[in-house]
Design brief:
The protein is an alpha+beta fold. The protein has three helices and seven strands.
């Protein structure tokens, strides 16, 4: 089943860079985290605050991530991040990010996340729960 993609354009800021003026690699993961939220916002038509409340979700924490760094991005570069759902299971899903600088693939990012809710036995904890069918439908292409 094909899934939704969202494209974000952003400018690399000075605070994201190391002294050489290139993006300090952990900052790519922060960009990708934001891009995942923007994908859900676009698919569901509401803010993260709104959809977490609507679906009684405690969040979708990352359980695995990795990146492949092909070329640097620098302060002032305008980049695009193409974020795609690549797989949805019962309570987990896979995301791929393709960060391009001037149309050239610079970084690939990969995430596995888990849809969670509050643990009824101990509300201070979270546990996985099935991704609502409506969310799966909205993340899927017609």
């Amino acid at each position: 089943m094909p899934f939704r993609t969202n494209i974000t354009t952003r400018r690399i800021e000075w605070g994201e860079c190391d002294p050489a003026g290139i993006v300090f690699y952990p900052n790519y993961f922060a960009m990708f985290d934001n891009a995942t939220t923007l994908l859900f916002t676009a698919a569901l038509g509401m803010t993260k605050y709104q959809f977490l409340a609507k679906y009684d979700c405690a969040g979708y924490p990352m359980v695995d991530t990795r990146g492949r760094f092909l070329s640097p991005a620098r302060f002032g570069d305008d980049v695009t991040i193409e974020t795609s759902v690549t797989e949805i299971k019962r309570s987990s899903f896979q995301i791929t990010h393709l960060l391009k600088n001037n149309g050239v693939l610079a970084v690939e990012g990969f995430e596995t996340r888990v849809w969670t809710g509050r643990d009824p036995a101990d509300p201070s904890k979270i546990r996985s729960q099935p991704i609502p069918a409506e969310v799966v439908e909205r993340l899927s292409l017609p």
